[in-house]
Write a structure and sequence with these properties.
It contains 23 helices and 10 strands. The protein is α/β, with parallel strands linked by helices. The protein folds into 3 domains: 324 residues, Up-down Bundle (ABC transporter transmembrane region fold), CATH 1.20.1560; 164 residues, P-loop containing nucleotide triphosphate hydrolases (Rossmann fold), CATH 3.40.50; 75 residues, 3-Layer(aba) Sandwich (Rossmann fold). The strands form 2 sheets. A 6-stranded mixed β-sheet has the order 6-7-8-3-9-10, sandwiched between helices. 33% of the residues are buried. Bound molecules: adenosine-5'-triphosphate (ATP) and magnesium ion. Adenosine-5'-triphosphate (ATP) binds next to helix 14. Magnesium ion (MG) binds next to helix 14.
Amino acid sequence: MNGNDGSKMKDSKWVRDFEKSNDKLVLRFLKANGVRYLFGFLFFAAVNLLQVVTPRLTGDIIDELYKQNPDLSLIAKFAIVIFALSIVIMGLQFLGRLTVLGAGTLFDVLMRRKLFRKLLTLSMNFFHKKSIGDIMALSVNDLNAVNRAIGHGAMMVSNTIILAVVSIVAMGETMSYKLTLMIFIPLPLLVFTMYKFGMVINRKFRKVQDRFGELSGKVQENIAGIRVVKSFVREESEQKSFEKVNRANYDAEVEMALVNGLFMPLISFISSFCYLILIYFGGRSVIVDQSISIGDFVAATSYITLLIRPMQMLGRLLGMVQRGKASMGRIYDLFEEKPDIVDHKFNQNDVDIKDNKLKGKIEFKKLNFAYNEKNGDVLKDINLVINPGETVAFMGTVGSGKSTVSNLLIRLFDTPERGQLLIDDMDIADIPLKTLRGNIGYIPQDNFLFSDTIRYNIGFSPDEMNDEQIEEAAKTSDIYDTIMDLPDQWETMLGEKGVNLSGGQKQRMCIARAVAKNAPIMIFDDCLSAVDMETESRILKSLKDVQSKRTCIIIAHRISTVKDSDKIVVLHKGRVAEVGTHEELLEKQGYYYKSYRIQLLEQQYGVGLKDAKGEKK
Ligand SMILES: Nc1ncnc2c1ncn2[C@@H]1O[C@H](COP(=O)(O)OP(=O)(O)OP(=O)(O)O)[C@@H](O)[C@H]1O
Ligand SMILES: [Mg+2]
């Protein structure tokens, strides 16, 4: 039921090794695909060898033409051979490209898989500091740059080397090796220019990619928040702030284009010195010492084009490799990110949890918690015991720390030695993460659902789930009838490509997802706020069965949601302000009592009175 299509890729040993390593990835890949690259190399070698034959034939044709009685049939033969050659070259080129460019694509697939896996291991803190757009840029644009270097780049390496060797030999044989060597006098200048430019290209390209990340971040955010943008009539000002980012990106691109624009012509310019040397000294050889024929001279000028090409290609190649390197650097930065919430290795074996099932006792011991030191403590000195099977409700004003309690229970954040949070009398950090989270059914406050089918969304659990379990969960959450009314029922697509559910329907889908998981601990973070009172009471009734067996933490603002709980905890500015049953808290006449009075009046007289949810009155 859990969609695991797409993971059908056969993994050979090197792929598994590649998956595990985090350094020298390009080198590892090239090594593992050595045979593939060798074949590519051979195809291109053949292409280049054959390419050199053509100028040689042209030279021979010219010499034939200069004869007293040129043989026309011989020239026709030459033409046929040149034509046949071009067909063979085309075929070999195709095979070479397929082999080497295919390797680039394979690298892409493997890296994207690695990136995705890495992203899923990272903790919340990472996602708070990095924008989605930036992460997207990394897995699209940066990987593309690396792919180009490793595919096109590799193709150019073999082309460059072979072409250089072949044309040097051919030239040396046609004229003299002395003249051929002379042609290379400008080479050191060429290498120096490439080296200098290479460093600049690397730096500039990194900047381009960084800026592009910001740009995609901006676009992503505006599309995600399109409703807010429209309703606040912010289109124009958002456009303006987009322009700023777009401009910064443009500036970076222009800088890069300047470097690139200067680089290639400069390489061509330096290479043209080679041409000058040949024309002068080659011409001399024809006229003065007559050591070569005119045909040889013409062939040599064709060779030199062949020879200048690899030099120019080397320039392009270097640019490509530098861009790939810059992007790979950005990718490595991500690989170096360490998740801060991890299993404590030294404790993992000490914890003996039968069948990985927790009983569901939760205990807060003098717990203090801060998201960051600057903003101070969000939870202060919390002491509370929740026994297995109990239902405990958390109430309190906005920002009083209710969701923080659930964040800590699923260990999205750690509580470093400032009090303790125990589950089944074990420090939460000592319970293997998989076990801990596998034992908690969590309904987040933001009702997040995936753009997939309803069946996929409700069955979204670490364990395989059958249809009955999914249906049962849907019934408990009072969403079954809604699903049955949809034309595609369980196969209905949600989200971007499918139907959009109402806020209340979404909440119930999220409840169904958590209920289906059948975990001993349930956390409902404000997840009944968007359903009407009647539906709420229906859901609560069917949840009773769920609740009586499990430890339930219900975060809510409505008295009707929390009044039957075994214990109600009122948080105020991170502290436990009141704790007790419904009756006990009414007697106390504090926050709970006030909320009760307001909500009671609201029910009696309809709307008009301020909801208890809101800042402290
Ligand atoms: N990821 C975070 N990083 C830093 N501060 C945070 C983070 N999440 C919440 N806070 C802060 O912690 C405090 C408690 O937030 P929390 O989400 O627990 O409130 P809440 O009681 O659930 O409120 P609400 O009723 O609005 O859901 C708030 O002051 C909030 O600004
Ligand atoms: Mg909250």
